[in-house]
Amino acid sequence: MVAAWLKRFHDMLLPPTCLLCGAAGYNGRDLCTGCAADLPRNISACSHCALPMSSDSSSRCASCRTQSPLYDRTFAPFRYRPPLDFLIRRLKFNGRLSHARLLGDLFADALAERGGPWPDGVIPVPLHPRRLRERGFNQALELARPAARRLQIPLLTDGLRRVRYTTPQTRLDARARQINPLGAFALGESLSGARIALLDDVMTTSSTVGECARVLRAGGAADIEIWIVGRAGGDD
Fold this sequence. Notes:
Order of helices and strands: HHHEEHHEHHEHEEHE
Radius of gyration: 18 Å
Helix content: 25-40%
Largest sheet: 5 strands, parallel
Number of helices: 9
Shape: globular
Distance between the termini: 45 Å
Number of strands: 7
CATH topology of the largest domain: Rossmann fold
Structural class: alpha/beta
CATH architecture of the largest domain: 3-Layer(aba) Sandwich
CATH class of the largest domain: Alpha Beta
Number of domains: 2
C-alpha cells in the first residue's frame, strides 16, 4: 500500500516520459502507447532456442534439429530489432538504468502473460569482475530484478561466476563467438535438482547461454530455461 502511494506521488512529481520519442508515458512507465505497439514481438520462433522463424516453419530451427542445446527451452518475447535494440544498447553502453527498469518490466509482463510453472530461481548471466568494474553494473541482473520481484522467484546472484575475462561478443565474428565463452563460467552454488531460468539481454549465436547451460547441467540443474529479452537473427 505504501509502495503504491509512493509510486503515484513520484509519477505526479516526475510524470513518465517515453524513452523512445519523448511523449507522455502510460501505466506509470517511460513508454508511450505508440512506441509500445512498435516493439518487435517474437511471435513465431524455434521452440528450443527461440530463433525467429516464418510462421510456416517447423517448430524447431535447423540447428536445434541437428543438435539439441543443453538447455530445455527458451523464452524470448521480443526480437532484437528497432526500437528494442536502441533501448538495450543505451543500457549496456551508456549506462541508462532507466532503460533496464522499462525492459525488465516489459519482460515481466510477457512472462506473466505466458504463465508458469516458474523456476526455483533466476540466474542472471554474470559479468567478469573486471568487466563489472568497467561498466559499473550487470545489465542481466538489472533486467532480472523486475521479473524476480513480480513473480516472487528467488534471484540467485551467486549461481554462476564468470572466471575468465573474455572479448566482448559484439567485437567477434560468428565463428569466434562460438569458442569465446568456453571455460568462462563456473558454478557458484549447489543447484542439484533445481529448475533454473538463466537470464540475459540478447541472444545471437547462443554460445554464451550454451556454455552457461553446460556448467549448470554439470552442476545438477534438472531443468534449464533461457530467458532472453531480445532474440537476434532468424527470418525477416
